[in-house]
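DATA SHEET
Item: assembly model
Revision: 1
Owner: S.N.
Input lines:
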Amino acid sequence: GESVGLHLPTLSVQEGDNSIINCAYSNSASDYFIWYKQESGKGPQFIIDIRSNMDKRQGQRVTVLLNKTVKHLSLQIAATQPGDSAVYFCAEKSGFQKLVFGTGTRLLVSP
Amino acid sequence: EADIYQTPRYLVIGTGKKITLECSQTMGHDKMYWYQQDPGMELHLIHYSYGVNSTEKGDLSSESTVSRIRTEHFPLTLESARPSHTSQYLCASSGVAGEETQYFGPGTRLLVL
């Protein structure tokens, strides 16, 4: 069945470094992808999304890259800050199907 | 900031009690969802609704039930709480067709003793 997974369960970076969080998906029919950030004790917060007709989308300090050939999605955070420490989830969707969430990657930012 | 609210935020209750977790959104979204999430783990969809009087079971089997009598309100009920129900419950909503982004509430942390 469909699955969305993350390569690294925990990513530790220094403040100011760039962070890259990766996500693999298996459903080649997926046409919409979202990255969420979840801080401790809170619900997931929307960060950025991308449709399958795009390869790259940029937001404020964040960039999402989509490689449909290898079914890979990544979230890049520039100049990572302590406030970026959280668990990051990718999610994918195909047509009118429901969102499928990955297992999450914990980002730890050291000062 | 999404206008979706959940109450209570924290609940400690004894086994066998009936509980209702409240979820409301003021965005006029048709679609609403309930997820169950253990600490640091993935989200599991347990119920969803595409509109008033529409409810469906999600991917993860759950002993809870939901109702959707009003667009803005999507409560989740456990008739008889058990320790295995201890978890975090997240409510989400999304807008019209083509707007797939789900907006989440702050969650309810449930502890059943």
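QC remark: DSSP finds no helices and eleven strands in chain A.
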